[in-house]
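Supplementary Methods. Inverse-folding protocol.

Structures were first reduced to a discrete structure-token string of length 345. This string, shown here, constituted the complete conditioning input.
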């Protein structure tokens, strides 16, 4: 297809988070905080609680329900406005699963087998992993392309999945001779696109790390946050005079990145502020900043959780609005691939 024939897609943002455990600081800085910023950028924003993705590993049903509502509460507490953004849980819009199936028939097994997250999560026991876990990236492509989303804010660890989304869109467009799905761009920017574990600077901070000390949970109280930063692994050197001095110091680099992201300043500015200071000075300053940013979110989240019916109502409204965008795109996709639609609505 020539450049001139390319469709221009209206800019639209989509992203999602799995409702598993509490949000950790990496999710907040790498995702939620940036979702809120994009909400104010003049582009339509759609944010999803990807409950169907969570199911790819075993979830106790009662826990899944609670985690879904808690994630909705966290989104809102962190500044997402359910009026300005569309906020909903994935399973309430059936198009995700339907388009996911169509993409299962477009994506190739080889592509799925190469996904780093699949290899990490399934590990050596891949035979026992759910089929859903292998197909996960194709459902993720459906999440994004069901809305013709052009921009997807994510942390660094999701880059490969967004690239696969582009591969699926390109193969679909090519196989059916259309220019129907956009080439979505991952948006991975800011100082904290890969927040690392506080215990090991070579591993990313994760909700599923068995060590609670490795992460800051958005629900941690002030004392716990201060203690976790105090115990965070670092080297013995003071902070350097320039950013170049953080090279080969992954733990120090991580804490400086976290500070920069929380304070909304550059890494250079943090280094300039703390040059020559030891961690005895830097860590308490970081803990104070983190508490100042996180504590209000945690208390607002608790307040919202007191009224789960209101959360469900907001999610239901969001799902209606999401479905209104998704339905015509799904209907056209079905038509393109040759599925007969004759049922009266
Ligand atoms: P999930 O639920 O693992 O993580 C949610 C978001 O948080 C980011 N993130 C991090 N960012 C920086 N540092 C970290 N340590 C860190 N840990 C997590 C993730 O990059 C992500 O942006 N597959 C996705 C969910 C998903 C999705 C989508 C995302 C499903 N469909 C469509 C975007 C568009 C996931 O498991 O994210």
């Amino acid at each position: 297809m020539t450049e001139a024939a390319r469709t221009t897609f209206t800019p639209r943002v989509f992203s999602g988070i799995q409702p598993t455990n509490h949000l950790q600081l990496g999710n907040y800085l790498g995702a939620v905080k940036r979702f809120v910023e994009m909400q104010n950028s003049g582009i339509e924003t759609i944010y999803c609680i990807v409950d169907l993705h969570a199911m790819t590993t075993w979830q106790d049903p009662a826990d899944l329900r609670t985690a879904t509502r808690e994630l909705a509460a966290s989104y809102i507490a962190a500044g997402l406005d359910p009026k300005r953004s569309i906020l909903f849980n994935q399973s309430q819009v059936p198009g995700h699963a339907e388009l996911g199936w169509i993409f299962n028939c477009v994506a190739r097994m080889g592509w799925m087998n190469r996904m780093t997250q699949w290899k990490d999560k399934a590990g050596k026991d891949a035979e026992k992993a759910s089929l859903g876990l292998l197909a996960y990236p194709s459902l993720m492509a459906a999440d994004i392309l069901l809305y013709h989303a052009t921009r997807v804010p994510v942390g660094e660890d999701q880059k490969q999945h967004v690239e696969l989304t582009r591969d699926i869109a390109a193969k679909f467009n090519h196989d059916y001779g259309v220019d129907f799905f956009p080439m979505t761009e991952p948006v991975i920017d800011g100082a904290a696109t890969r927040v690392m574990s506080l215990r090991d600077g070579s591993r990313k901070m994760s909700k599923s790390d068995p060590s609670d000390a490795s992460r800051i949970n958005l629900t941690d109280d002030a004392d716990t946050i201060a203690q976790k930063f105090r115990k965070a692994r670092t080297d013995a050197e003071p902070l350097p005079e320039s950013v170049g001095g953080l090279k080969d110091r992954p733990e120090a680099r991580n804490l400086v990145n976290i500070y920069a992201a929380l304070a909304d300043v550059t890494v250079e500015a943090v280094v300039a502020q703390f040059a020559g200071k030891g961690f005895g000075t830097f860590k308490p300053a970081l803990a104070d900043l983190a508490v100042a940013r996180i504590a209000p979110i945690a208390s607002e989240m608790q307040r919202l959780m007191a009224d789960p019916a209101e959360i469900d109502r907001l999610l239901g409204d969001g799902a209606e609005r999401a479905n209104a965008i998704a339905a015509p795109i799904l209907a056209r996709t079905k038509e393109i691939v040759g599925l007969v639609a004759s049922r009266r609505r």
